[in-house]
Queue: 4 jobs
Job 1
Amino acid sequence: MFSFFRKKSAPTPAQPAAPVSPEADLPVPAAPTAAIAVVEPMAAPAPVVPPVAEPAAETEATEAARAGWLQRLKSGLSKTSNSIADVFTGGTKIDEALYEELEAALLMADTGVAATTALLDDLRQRVKDTRATEPAQVKALLADAIADMLAPLEKSLIVGEYHPTVIMVAGVNGAGKTTTIGKLTRHLAAGGATVLLAAADTFRAAAREQLAAWADRNTHDLSARELDPGNRVEIISQQGADPAAVSFDAVAAGRARGKDVVLVDTAGRLPTQAHLMEELRKIRRVVQKADVTAPHECLLVIDGNTGQNALAQVKAFDEVLQLTGLVVTKLDGTAKGGVLCAIAREKPLPVYFIGVGEKLEDLETFHAREFAHALLD
């Protein structure tokens, strides 16, 4: 479980929101208040919400949940791990044939030519330095090489330096964007942050209803865990309205209501749809009119099954939104996983979360070493 924590600070009285046109110039907002610090996943400071279980029992439950999630991740990446593991079976010798087989396996895992070449060069040097002679040793060294390549992608999402912290979430149709927003809301709310959702996907049928359903699931989840859900998850929506206008209203409402986070659900689109990509630029511009410091995070949700196309999506959306991080979903199906190595090599944006299923708890923080071993075990 990844939790969000915040430092205690004097409450800031909410100011009533005046109806302002999205295209009007707004005054520069007040300087940010004290930050909500996001700690590393395994750290254990006292959370804002008092624990409902004894510390030892809570730690044990958390570790058990993480172990269960890692097992699901390994299962999701089994197609890749089985393919690479086959290279090290039988009477494998540490020779050029081994490296050629590894190259083919890595390329089939969507690792990409540049990342595969870098990994094999690194592996050869590690084998030489350690004088490894057994296939199992080489496999372990490969896991280390992958972990080191992915390490720059491992970063914590920080919430609370600004109030509210505005997070835009984008992605192509079917990548799991709205579902990811629901899961991310759960992480934020369970950690004590108040969340407001902007349903800016205004033209897709039932998009607002889908987001509302996730908000309702989050509220019930908080209640079931005996965490006060009071006013933590709210939605700003307007069917058929301009997405930028809805985003503007949500940021203004988040400031007026003293929310910690505003999550903006943008409409799904393909990078080749120029008019829709331009609409993303408009949403970003209008959000900045509501808060000149926003958006504070621009996240792209990518489907782990799309292979090298995911890298193309990252480049295209980054050009429009100046992405700050990624969420990789659907690693529980036919996902090959190697695309994260390609991203690390060619466009090393932080991977804040990875997902392995449809449940609220099936979104977890990304750890390079855990992922590397899941990719090979």
Job 2
Amino acid sequence: MIKDVFFDLDHTLWDFEKNSALAFQDIFKKNRVPVDLEHFLTHYVPINFKYWKLFREEKISKEDLRFNRLNEAMLASGYTIEPDLIHVLSQAYIEHLPLNNHLFDGVEQMLQELIKKELRLHIITNGFKEVQAIKLKRSNLSHYFTTLTTSEDVGVKKPNPAIFEHALNKANAEKQQSIMIGDNLEADILGAESFGLKSILFDPENKTPHTGNKILHFNELKQFF
């Protein structure tokens, strides 16, 4: 029987792309940056994904991630912006990102149902420590979760098995009675499985081929518990 459920946060519970777009809309307006938001986002989303992969693989620093993803997306969108302004926008983005807190459809109802079944819920995230707790609090999710483990707490990122081990120890959870739910096949699913955890892929756009457990909407999760 499953007793502990570990969730990823961004792109799983917390609708990162929607909240990110709103943050950019706000900071571009406040800093008078004449960028077509929709055009910019078509470049930023895949570039951000690329840099997060490099960050997970310990190939770049947090500072490199924050600066380069924005600078490269601006250049790809046809805009040349001074490095000083890129730094300003990068910091403003981090500050504005947790101010919008749209969740994926069905998240709160699903969490309530899991709590009613007396399951303990936890977060394991590669997101920046200084904003993840704020996201949980401002989206009114904090009270559902017993523990929050960030990669910065551990010093390694998913899919490194050490972060899963740390999270289970922090939660006082048993591997055989735990499961990981996340959107990233490499970091969340394969990472968890290589550590020996059961897993469920959350893939709302049904774009990731996967032969294991998979859901497109959180109302499908009840079949596993």
Job 3
Amino acid sequence: MLSRVADNLYWLGRYLARAENTARLVGVHSHLLLDLPRGVSLGWSPLIAMLGADGGYLSRYQDYSEANVVHFLITDRDNPSSIASSIAYAREILRTIRDGMPRDAWEQLNALHLFMQEEGEAHLPRAQRQAGLTKVVDGILLLHGLLGANMSHDVGYHFLQLGLHLEQADMTTRILDVRTVDLIQWKTGDELRPFQHIQWMSVLRSLMAYQSYRRYEKSRVSGPAALRFLLQNREFPRSAMYCLNKISACIAKLPANRATERPLQRIRALIQDANFERLLENGLHEWLDEIQIGIGQIHDALAKRYFQFDGVESSEALQSQTVAA
């Protein structure tokens, strides 16, 4: 497989996961604000922090109003992490490689792109927002189904899965990082203590994990239990450990890459050995930062091994460079 194609498939998976997770975040946050008591407002800035986009946001907007944040995250094409941008990037990738991809997948992604172009702005107000976000999430889930059912599960599919699961692991840790900082600050207000479980529920719902969590834990939502489920569970598809195990399984089917295996093994060991009761009291933010740095190291190792070259080869050689299947 051409390295260019492998790179495209990897980023196709990442963009699809990014668009889906961003849509879920905006939808769940809108509902969370309705569940909190009067006088308590989390604002909209945490959503920008989750995506690490504060610099780009503040360069164009003066405040973190609901209208500005929602526009920035859903339809702003100048924001590379917005839903519209992620879908547009994914569509462009699929357009360039569609000869080797299921035709139904192209038609579905193109329809989703056209929806965002033509009707995205109309679904920004709160009354219409949930319908638009649901269409995005359902459309991407349908696309995953089309790719999984109709695409050959060969080396290209493994690169697609690498991107999807690496992006999901990154988004899971980002959501936990920002939400948990808010929860820790709540401990200083005794009047807010009874409502802490509401925000933990929003964390689970952001990842469509609430029902699965209740099946496993069979108890009221709590911080340590939610962290254990979203980070250590080996069976829930959006938990960090599940995603890392899937990445390991995909790498095992590709040409050897020791540089990727090392940070992957280190992160899995950190998650497996974590004491979340102790980390919630002190050090969880720094611990999650270390996990996110490790995820970045995995991406760098994958890019260097499969998608980039050291400049020794000629441009013609670069164009013909292949990844062995």
Job 4
Amino acid sequence: MKIAEVGNIVEFKEGLQGVVEKVNENSVIVDLTIMENFHDLDMEEKTVINHKRYKILNHPNEH
């Protein structure tokens, strides 16, 4: 299992995306405000996701 790093964009729960802000032992904290439709979703700005529950989409240094 590859663990995300700060700055990675991850996807979880069938299409939700966020930028990793903090990596904990068993989870990451992500900022969801990067999604274009964030304000339509009625969600908190940040959420915690277990390492088993997301997939890494890209790293900000990759193009």
